Amino acid sequence: MDRYRSRDHKSKPREDIQLMCKRDAEDSWEAAEGRKHARPERDVSALSSVPRILSTRAALYERDFPVYKQPVEVGCFSLDSRRTFFNDARQLRYYVEPDRKPKLDLREGYRERYVRRDERVKENLDHLLTWILANRSKLPSRPAASSSLLELDVDIVTWRGHLTKLLTTPYETQEGWQLAVTKFGGTLYVSEVETEAARQSRESRTERHDEMMYWGYKFEQYTCADEVGACPNPGGVVNTNEAFCTVVQTRLGPHKLLFSGEVDCRDPDPLAPPAPSCYIELKTSAEIRMPKQRRNFLRYKLLKWWAQSFLPGVPRIIAGFRDSDGTVVSVETYHTSTIPQIIKSEYNSWKPTVCMNFCFDFLSFAKTAAIEDDPRVVYLFSWEPNRDVIYSVHRDSPYTFLPEWYVRQMMSLPK
Ligand code: 0WD
Ligand code: CA
Questions:
Q1: Closest ligand 1 atom to the C-alpha of 119?
Q2: Does residue 122's CB lie within 6 angstroms of at least one atom of ligand 1?
Q3: Which of 208, 221, 267, 364 pairs with 31 at a CA distance of 20 to 30 A?
Q4: CA angle, corner 269, sides to 267 and 274, nearest 5?
Q5: Nearest atom within ligand 1 for CA of residue 308
Q6: Is there an atom of ligand 1 within 6 Å of 321 CB?
Q7: pLDDT-based confidence at 25, cuts 50/70/90?
Q8: Cα(259)–Cα(332) distance, integer angstroms
């Protein structure tokens, strides 16, 4: 079945795209073309053409850990309670350690003081694009090959959350994803498209689930203050429109990345290391009582927590463990860099190198697929658990996501 795949992954060139086993390939042809017949025969010539699919099988990505440069913060921005953009850190909050034996009621305020962001509004990359336009002069540029314009010297622009989904894909068994990719000025812009399944699950969310989503934000309110030295204000309103986002630059192998992620708070010590090392990610999770709960926590939750914080170089994750009534009864610090050691002893656990190599290969795959440099063209990459990544091409479709204001302003800056 490994007809097209080299067995010695370590000797493979890094840019190589993992080809798939025959059965996976056939499955995705059916999914992609929506038909069972007239499948093209594979022959040797297929090897030299652009790959049409990418396998997500973990075993294919067990190579050496790829080069991932220490992420550097190049800027930040804030979104206020009405989702208005500010090119500054006004929404950054400061961590305040809770008591040793806390009793934080996460349910308090759910009915009276909870303002939810409207999740039907799809913002795509818009806030990040606004930030790029406002900070163009600070970003590395390269002369464009075919015009008198300056291009961003970046290969990929996206949200951190989209990269997190890529990192966890080889181990994900529940939720698929769709990523829209547009090549513009030599840069690939990657923006998520809500899947039909995700839309249905959002629209049929139960009251209990909605309340549990609130718990994470309530924990932030108990542990964050607006100013250094101030106290948290658990009597205030929880408004999920508000956000502080860091913008970082880094490199994964040859892929130069510029991405942004929401940051919960920072170390209040003014002598703490510079961003992103002073940032802290806050999480809540159910108390661990049974071995099975511990196993699920290590296998699934810590994978997501690690991927999300490793990407932007956030070194600490502070977790509030809650009982079934939604009361935080203990608080634990996880160091992002030591999570791989915590999970290593688990049987059949996840591997950081698999996550990073899959992301690496997906970005290479996207670069070979998205050849046409046109803001109105979208290469739509789709993945469902137990399938390969497939893609389709769309011109002037509802998938187009780069706004006209961005394209126009990027094209109006001469060299
Ligand atoms: O409109 C959209 N479809 C999206 C908007 C998709 C992805 C992100 N965003 C927005 C988010 O609202 C956020 O402001 O982009 C910003 C940054 O996102 P990210 O950091 O790349 O996203 P991710 O790493 O998935 O989430 C980070 C935090 C979450 O923390 P937890 O601890 O739960 O992982 O951002 C928050 C949340 O606190 N967050 C959101 N808040 C409101 N609405 C959402 C959301 N849809 N997604 C994440
Ligand atoms: Ca968080």
A1: 46
A2: yes
A3: 364
A4: 65
A5: 24
A6: no
A7: very low
A8: 28
**What global pTM score does this model have?**
0.90
Q: Return the half-sphere exposure (C-beta side, CA atoms, 13 A cut-off) of residue 120.
A: 2
State the CB neighbour count (10 A cutoff) for residue 346. 13
CA of 128 to the centre of ligand 2 (A): 19
Residue 15 in contact with ligand 1 by CB distance below 6 A: no
User: For the residues 339-355, what does the mean pLDDT come to?
Assistant: 96
Cβ–ligand 1 contact at 305 (below 6 Å): no
The per-residue pLDDT for range 41-71, each reduced to its tens digit, is 344 444 457 899 999 999 999 999 999 999 9
Nearest alpha carbon, ligand 1 atom 41 = 240
Exposed / middle / buried, residue 317 (Cβ in 10 Å: 0-12, 13-18, 19+): buried
Evaluate if residue 21 carries a pLDDT over 80.
no
Cis before 315 (ω within 30)? no
CB-CB contact of 231 with 224 (8 Å): no
CA distance 354 to 57: 9
The rounded Å distance from CA 7 to ligand 2 centre is 40
DSSP reduced 3-state for 20 = coil
Ligand 1 mutation target, pool 76, 179, 189, 262, most atoms within 8 A of CB: 262
Give the separation between CA 114 and CA 221, rounded to whole angstroms: 12
Residue 5, classed as helix, strand or coil, is coil
Distance 243 CA to ligand 1 centre (A): 9
Numbers of helices and strands, H then E, in the chain: 11, 20
> What is the mean pLDDT of the segment spanning 116-125?
98
What is the C-alpha to C-alpha distance for residues 321 and 183, in angstroms, rounded to an integer?
Answer: 43
Q: Mean pLDDT, to the nearest integer, of 318-331?
A: 97
What spacing in Å lies between the alpha carbon of 245 and ligand 1's midpoint?
10
Integer CA distances (angstroms), 51 to 96, 189, 389, in order = 50, 20, 11
Give strand ranges (E) for 64-140.
72-79, 85-86, 94-95, 104-105, 114-115
- The answer to whether 249 touches 147, Cβ cutoff 8 Å, is no
Pairing state of beta strands 187-193 and 156-159?
parallel
Name the amino acid, one letter, at 317.
I
Q: Whose CA is nearest to atom 26 of ligand 1?
A: 161
Q: Is the CB of 243 under 6 A from ligand 1?
A: yes
